[in-house]
Every structure is written in structure tokens, then in C-alpha cells.
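Polysaccharide biosynthesis tyrosine autokinase: structure, please.
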Amino acid sequence: MDVRDFLRTVRRSWWVVLLSVMVGLAVAALVTVRTAPRYAASVSFFVTTPNQGVTDAYQGNVFMQQRVKSYADLLQSDRLAQKVVGKTALGLTAEEVQARVSAAAIPDTVLLRGTVTDTDATRALRLTEAITAQFIELVKEVETSGEGRPAPVKVEVISGPRVGSSPVSPNPARNLALGALGGLLAGIGLALLRTRLDTRLRDSVTLQRATGSPLLGEIPFDAAARTAPLIVGDAATTPRAEAVRKLRTNLRFVDVHEPARVIAVTSALQGEGKTTLSCNLAIALAEAGWRVALVDADLRRPKVAEYLGMEAGVGLTDVLLGDVNVGDVVQRWGDKSLLVLPAGSVPPNPSELLGSKAMADLLLVLRESADIVVIDTAPLRTVTDGVVVAVQADGALMVSRYGRTDRGQVGAAAQALQAVSVRLLGCVLNMAKLGRAETYQYESYRVDVPAGPAAAPPSHMDTAPAARGGGFPGPEQTIPDPTQELTRLPR
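Here you go.
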């Protein structure tokens, strides 16, 4: 993970980091409030050698610096604590006295500093005074030889004892800063862990790796798509519609030498938006002038007719059973060169019906009657219908939903297609988050299109297919009547 991935991960889980910082501040504030204030009393000692001549001044100074380090331990010793408890009535035990005393030798000097901390400022001062007196006496006892010679060192008080008027702990500013820092580090750690454990698709790079195919489109999330799923009317000028047009353009150039005329649109799981994308892709292709046939081959949960507002009673199932002619049930949508074949009734054996010879014959007829055939199929991880249809198509388009589909499920779906040698044209990340920069760029170049079925095509739409060339075959300039263009299937 490089710096850019790290920053992207933290930004994606910003609420985790923010919540952790708030928890850290709350814990620090609680600890600060519940901690009793402690006061510090201090005293400084000067250690020297009496009657020291100038000749041995340097040696004596080095001797005393080494001695001071030992006196620091002596100031915190059990022996001194016992003497203080025996001489002073403070209501403390020797262990409690030791716990309140700290000592430090100032480097490269003969100064020794002692500090006593207590929740009671008066008691801290009294204890410091007692320790000062008993420490000087204890040094004399330790340093005096058995022959009655005077001690070779002398300890004098040069500062204190005195106690501060303000408590030394707790320190609110320091505690809150440490709490915020701890919360920040914990939040970043949780964000990284969350990213590692979260296997759902969060970016297009992961989707490409999972499917092993190029990214052909990234459809942004649009809350209005729940009530207006099609890119017509006011929705024709949204970033979602522009993304579908970009998908249309990318799909044309997947392989210019071997263009895909029959495209199966599928997904790994249900609810990833494949049907909506199939309808919108067919509409976008028809807007560019191609003759498009949209087939609802999801015979278990058909939705194409519902989205397009068409009659769904008779359709693909009835054609495959030989009950009706395809030319009698195919319907033209609006004033565009878009022919729609609904699913019809739900059969008891969808997989067998979709893999039958009648389905193969139907695709041959549609291939001759339309420039491009878009087939909406069932999810690959749920049933085998999608694989059965994709085998008969020129290629498949994998649709995955941002933040919902597991990359392992997408990979398994792609492997299911590869196992039967299905050509995976590419993948589409649906309902993705659109960055601010992309939104700004789109709004800057947006062209408003009048609403209504008779509205003129937007100015940013692809130019006429016949003048461009590319992966798709050139469309006819006139739209034939479906009943005349589509032949009757053998029964």
C-alpha cells in the first residue's frame, strides 16, 4: 500500500477515524475528571567535601558527582522512610512514604533534587520538611567512620522545601492531546483493518482484478434512479446518462476486428442493476442510430417490460415454445430504433428453454434483423441461466454494484464464464461514488435537453454511426417494421 492508497483508505473511513478521536477525547476527559489533584513539594541539596584543597579540587568534584548518584537512591530508600515515619506523625506507612518520594541527580553537578507528590498540599510540604531533616542526618550516619572521624561529605539545602500552589496532575491539556492522538492512531488502524477485512468492491481497480477484464464503464449513483431508472427526459442530462454513453463508446472499441453484435448483460448476484443498465445501454445505442434489439432473457425475475412500460404478457417464453411468432410479440419502444422482446410468462424450466435450439434460431433471426442485440440475463451465482445465454452470445458484460458485491463472488462469476469459453467483453461498476472533480467537469460541459418524447438528441451524443465506423456494424438509415423484418421461427 503506497501513500495514495493509504490516504484513500483513511478518507473512505473518515467517520471511523473521527469517532475514534472523539472516543479518545472522551476517555481522556473522564480520566482527567476522576483523577484526584496531586501537589508537588521539592527540595534541592548541595553535596560537597569540607576542607578540600585546591590541588585535589578536580578529583574531589568527580568523587562527589559519583556520590550524588548514590544519594539519590538513599533519598528513596526504605531506611529513610522508616526514620521519617518514626520521627513524624503524618499517618503514613513507610511504603506510602516511599511511593510519594522521587529523587534525581542533576547531571554533571553535585546537586540532588527530591520531590514529594501528594493529594494534600500541606501534607506534601510537611513530608518534604521531614525527609530533608532525616536525610541530612542519615548521610552523616552513613558517611561517618567507626573511629569517630567526621564525614568526608557535607549535604546542605540550597532550595526549598516549598510546594506549588497549582496541582501538577492531572494536566487537562496534555491528557486531551494524548487522548486525541491515541484516538487518531486507533482510528487509522481500524480504518486499515476495515479495508483489509472488507471484501466488497470499492473501486474499479479491484473490479478489474477480480474479473480479469477491462473496465468499460463506471455508472455513478443517482438517487433519482429509483423512481426514474431510464435515461430519458430530465434524466438524459445527468452524469448517469453521460456514463452510459461513455460505456456505449467504450463498448464499440473493445475489439474492432471482431465486433460483438450479441451482448449478454449479466452480474454475479441479484440487485446489482444489470436490467436497468441493459435498458439504458439499448436506449443509448438506439439514440446513436443503431437498430437495437433488447431481449429479456431473465425468465425467473423479468423486469425489462416493467421498466420500459410495455406489455409483458407474451414474449420470449412463448416464442421459444413455438406458440407465437417473434414478429407478433416484439415491440418497438418509443420513436427510436429499439425493438424489445419481453420475457413473457415464467416457465418451469428456464435453463433448458434458454439452451434449446429454438433460442439459437431466435438469436440468428435477431442478428439478421438488428445491428446490436442486448440480452438481459439472470445472475451467474444464483442460477445457470446466465451462462447458458452467454455461451450463445458474442460476449458478456459483467455488471457489479459498488459497495455491495463481494470481489470473491465477482471472481467466481467471471471464472464460470471463462470455464465455458465465454468472451468477457469487460466489466461495469454500477452505482459508484462520483468524485467532486468529475461532477464539476460534467456540470461545466453539461448541455440541457428539452424534456419530452419528441426532444432532439443532445449535442454531446455520438455522431452518426455511418460516418464513424468502429467495432459495431453500420446501422440502416430507415427503421423497418418488426413484423416484416423478423422472420417466423421453425416450430
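Notes: The two ends are 60 Å apart (CA to CA).
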